[in-house]
Fold these 2 entries.
Entry 1:
Amino acid sequence: MFIGKVSRFFSGVSRNPIYKQIGSRLMSSQLAEGYNYETLKVLNPREYVFQVELNRPEKRNAINSTMWKEFVTCFQQISNDKDCRTVVISGSGKIFSAGIDLQCLAEVAMEATDSDVGRKAMTLQKFIIGFQESFTVFEKCPKPVIAAIHGGCIGAGVDLITACDMRYCTKDAWFQVKEVDIGLAADVGTLQRLPKIIGNDSLARELAFTARPFYADEAKEMGLVSRLFADKETLINRTLDVASLIASKSPIAIQGTKVNLIYSRDHTVAEGLQYIANWNQVMLQSEDIMKAFADKSPVFSKL
């Protein structure tokens, strides 16, 4: 049902009066004020929509020590920004991301030099947990996060996109759970999130054990991505279209939906139902409900 609705949305964009209204509020692709990062470019291309672009094109957007840290700082800032309701993550240059920068691994190895195995292990654990938080911050962000993937998405790039709420890609995109090829088990989220996303434990294990590349059509078939586009320009524009549509809706409703989807994923049905009951006993009193009923094109207050 959801896929059908999305398909109808894209096919009817030009005819949709709601969409025309969104288009009238578009903004130029400019840097978001107050977001100054070395490895990330944060744009504010449309009203209430931010675009976080991995910005190391000369290194194929490989994730170095600085980028790991900047993800956390950036998304904590976005979480508290009343002018942002939806986030698109994209990559600059030819591919989305080549995964972890090998120089970063070398830096970790240099830090873990203690001769005692226990102390060395504790140092490594600190780094691993820090890397995990760099992507878990996407889930903790109450605003929907949409990954727009072009070209290659390798290793830690897969960890990154599996922590996002939605994933679209170009028809020439390809993916690879690469970690076993460099002698380690993926430890930043793919093994925990990918099986739940695609709902096929056997296939998730195949991809993780073999490190074989897979391509856009297979990624869509398995449910890793939900939409394919001809090229990067179309991908970004259409992803921003969806982000704008989401941003036009009640932020109380959207953020509540995200929080409850993530909670329900990790708990029983009974626990999820109790959680949403507790949540909505407060949120059903929001002014947004009255606005949604009273106006065909409601404008919601900042949250």
Note: Strands lie at 40-46, 49-54, 86-91, 145-149, 152-154, 166-170, 174-176, 214-215, 227-229.
Entry 2:
Amino acid sequence: MRIHVPSNVPMESTPFKGMEFEADEIAYGFYNEYGRKASFSIRKEYVNKCKKIGMVTSRRFVCAKEGVRGKDKRDQNVKNPRAETRCGCEARLVIILNRDSKKYVMSEFIAEHNHYLHLPSTVHMMPSQWKVAVTHAIEIDLAHESGLRLKQSYELLSKQVGGYDNLGFTKQDHKNYLRTKRQRDMEHGAAASLGRYFSHQLKENPSYYFATQLDCEELITNIFWADARMIIDYSHFGDVITFDTTYSTNRDARPLGVFLSLNHHSEIVVFGGALLYDETIESFVWLFETFLEAMSEKKPITIFTDQDAAMSVAIKVVMPKTYHALCIGICDEFLTAWNEMLDKYDVRENKWLIDLFKLKEKWAQAYVKRTFTAGMKTTQLSESFNADLKDCLRTDLNIVEFFTHFETVVNQKRDKELEAEYNPRQKFPRLNLKSSPMLNQVATVYTPKLFDLF
């Protein structure tokens, strides 16, 4: 058996018999640090406690390769058995409590190992060195809430400290930390976790609005929420809105609905969100009634949606005077062009086209131009926002993580608005007619986007 003795370890970091420690955990930390510098992993082997005094009386810390794995009767049936990690190494450190001084004294120390020691560049991979520090935990949380994938987050943290070996934990530790955090967040169940999330939001801002619909078994079916900023924005820009549902790919697979519009900078503004149990008339009626309640019963002039029959019925019930528009066509001579198309392709008996024509008042420009649309023509606004939400809809997110990511996307949109507020104060529009009093006046009143349109 070849003996390997750690070298290049400073004397002040090397254990010796008679060394004293204030606590057994301090002794463990000292030996673990010695193991890091000597390039071997350690573990706790046994502990003796005195029930009478309620203290640890002795403890042994050993090399992680101490002992041998016990024989398992199942080994012969396992196709790919785990690799051996122990080889009977006898390196160890033993401490005993001095009952007079209440300190722990090192009674035994064996430095020799019967195996190769690790390379200094791989020390961070040793199990006893795996530890996510508090500062790193905060950064992991922030990266996760910002939508960074685990691989991206781990790469970012390693670059901040000059490499993986300086990080102090592996990618698996990173993954385990997030898994434990998820379990802790959801330890009381989805409904209770959601309740705590909304309670926190209300505490931060009493104007935060949320509502849940329960079924006959008192289980949450539909959820609607809007923060104070969304409610204020709706009072300014809620005359024309778009609403769309997309099947989310988070673990609950619930349809996600978002109320959107454009602000005075032609930037997307969010008025509220909903997670629905289904897409029935009853669910949409509850949602639209709840939305209007949150918005002080102010009904939009126009609402754009996709061609969902249940949604259409619900809009008629809840907002009968609101114009319901679908995707708008571009043909001015609509009827002539429509008939020419039917004849050209011989599709006058096509049922889909017949049904679509019955809805022409909702999508053909010749009809929709009679109502106020604030320049919006399609539900493309929703499609654009849904694309930004893709990280919120990952299958590995629980309900609380979903809301956190949704907040991030909304805040990104609000940052865009701040940029749009900054730019006209920093840059002045170019006037084709600099002597025009009217252009000079509206250039100071309109936002750049609307001034260009004017």
Note: The CA atoms of residues 88 and 357 lie 82 Å apart.
